[in-house]
Amino acid sequence: MKKWNLVIDVAKCNDCNNCFLACKDEFVENDYLPYSAAQPRHGQRWMNIMRKERGQYPKVDVAYLPIPCMHCDDAPCIKAAKDGAVYKMGNGIVIIDPEKAKGQRSIVDACPYGAIWWNDEKAVPQKCTFCIHLLEEGWKEPRCVQACPTGALSVIHAEDREMAKVIKSDELEVYQPKYKTKVHVYYKNLYRYTKCFIAGAVALQDTDECAEGAQVTLSKGRKKVIDRVATNNYGDFKIDNLKEKSGRYSLEIAYPSYTKHKMDINLKTSMNLGTIFL
Ligand code: SF4
Ligand code: SF4
Predict the structure, then answer these.
(1) pTM
(2) Is the Cβ–Cβ distance between 130 and 6 less than 8 Å?
(3) Rounded to an integer, what is the distance from CA 198 to the centroid of its chain?
């Protein structure tokens, strides 16, 4: 059977919040029983956009990470619920039954992604339903996907086998794989949020000019080259997708007719090396 999957491209998300607002527009003051009770006007973010700033001035960037319910196959919220109050549909979508889940606050704490919200007034846990009520009417995507102006959100309705091929070919990743919950939400360019970079600029001491085209090589240990980039016309370089707190690296900068510059780096988080003169 085909299942619903959501793909989120972190590099395309600009934090416009259209997805969040479309979700509010759809669910605030609207019941879609038996799938969802109305979302309160304040206090819930079924599409929760996290923000992360990396680096130091002037080499700084910001990434946004939209986090909805991951519609896990192995969902801790289902295990925590009593009386089958949370269940998985054959199409992959996880639903909290608003009647059966009444008073079950422990369901909120069961989600490791923080995707469930407590409705104080109705005493019910709530979350993203993938707009199942619309899909059942023939919609091809939920409201958040329809509202996203940058193409950061897309839907893949496919059997698990087909989806596995897409995951491989498009190099999709899951957020927090350590939870092992077998999610149906995948990310592209997740490194923009979860990894770090080394950036800097290269200039020539004698002419005081930017060194365009200098070769910057990052290595681990004696021989293992991690990445090699060329500086741009401002002499700037950036090596991204590095694991935080991943220890010692060596950086070598080569430019024709100049002595190679070598330095050791202890990488903890994104860092700006400033201007390096050859
Ligand atoms: S992301 Fe959280 S709420 Fe959604 S299915 Fe998984 S455990 Fe349940
Ligand atoms: S609508 Fe798209 S670009 Fe805007 S915040 Fe949501 S995911 Fe990001």
Answers:
(1) 0.94
(2) yes
(3) 20
According to DSSP, residue 89 is labeled -
196-277 topology per CATH: Immunoglobulin-like (2.60.40)
Q: How far apart are CA 2 and CA 130, in angstroms?
A: 15
* Protein residue whose Cα sits closest to atom 4 of ligand 1: 69
Yes or no: say if 20 and 45 are a contact pair by the CB < 8 Å rule.
Answer: yes
Separation of alpha carbons 229 and 76, rounded Å: 43
Which residues of the chain have a pLDDT value below 50? none
Choose the CATH number for 3-193 among 3.40.50.880, 3.30.70.20, 3.40.50.920, 3.40.50.10240: 3.30.70.20
At 97 the pLDDT is: 98
Q: Give the pLDDT confidence score for residue 222 in this predicted structure.
A: 74
**Residue 18 vs residues 49, 86, 204: alpha-carbon distances, Å:** 11, 28, 46
Ligand 2 binding pocket mutation candidate from 10, 12, 19, 46 (most atoms within 8 A of CB): 19
